[in-house]
Amino acid sequence: MQHLLNEMVETYGDRIYRLALRYTGERCQAQDLTQETFLRAYQHLDSYDRSKPAGPWLFKIAGNLCRNWLRDNREQPAIFSEDFYQSSDPGPEDLYLSRERKKELMQAMFKMPLIYREVLLLKHVGELSYAEICEALDLNLSLVKNRLYRGRVMLRDYLEKGGSN
Amino acid sequence: MKEVSCPDILAIQAFIDEGSGGRQLINHVENCPLCQQVYQELKELVAVAGGLNSEAKLPGCFYEALNSRLEKRPFPSVLVSVLVFVMALVSAYLLNPDYMQWWLSIGITRQIGFIFDALLDLFFLGRSIGQAWLVSFAAALVTLEFIILNKLKTTEG
Lengths: 165, 157
Description:
- The complex is a heterodimer.
- Chain A is mainly alpha-helical.
- Chain A has one domain (about 1-165): Butyryl-CoA Dehydrogenase, subunit A, domain 3 (Up-down Bundle), CATH 1.20.140.
- Chain A contains 8 helices and no strands.
- Chain B has 2 domains: about 10-50, no CATH class; about 70-155, no CATH class.
- Chain B has helices spanning about 10-20, 20-30, 35-50, 60-70, 75-95, 100-105, 110-130, 130-155.
- In chain B, helix 5 (about 75-95) crosses helix 7 (about 110-130).
- Classes of the chains: A mainly alpha, B mainly alpha.
- The interface between A and B is large, with 49 and 29 residues.
């Protein structure tokens, strides 16, 4: 059982951590949520269908935990935390986008309604396919495509508005 | 002007995201100026949203922290099953001291069989209903036992 869990951590750990980081904005909180995701997965390994990839199942658990975290910490200005804009190991995208640009992007993301934000995060941070997003959020394909499109448009619009202010 | 055969914007988005739509869609987009414009716009939208990702990685100590929490978790269900079993045995003895005589009379093989059955049943019951429920159930049972024993003592006394 533990071997299976370790495989899951190896495959999905970083992506779940990044997702949690986008929701909480703090490394410690994101690590806690990632840990809790895998602990819950371990407790419910019996209900996991091993013929399918574990990704959607794990992201479903992580998404629920992140939503609960948001609900309990609504007043917390996570978006202003330094962790939010920096990654421990900057990659090409981080280098490309300046820190200010990244800040604007995250602020724009936080302005979006949660239903669009969660689809965008699963696609771009969780790197899930459409089918996997459907499974993780219990939505049908057309709704996922629609929310993804509208979310992307909203993100661009918020950025443009932010830039013009 | 948009042609009747032009694909839906979501179909073009799916093509960018997942490569779905096949040769037919690629051919159409390549030859339709309007769809090419939509395609470019969508590519920009995808690039902007792509900035949400980062290269952050879990710290090296994550596995150790997770494993230490994993090792702690199964403990209560074993402990609680043993406690419930011992409590049942003690309360049976307190209610009727002859019970121990019966227990000694059944022989070592049956004694081991009973102990194993009871412990396993309690353990798997605990795992299936969840540890928190098992702890609550055990606590309620202990309280009930004490109330009953106290009542009996008062009645007899």
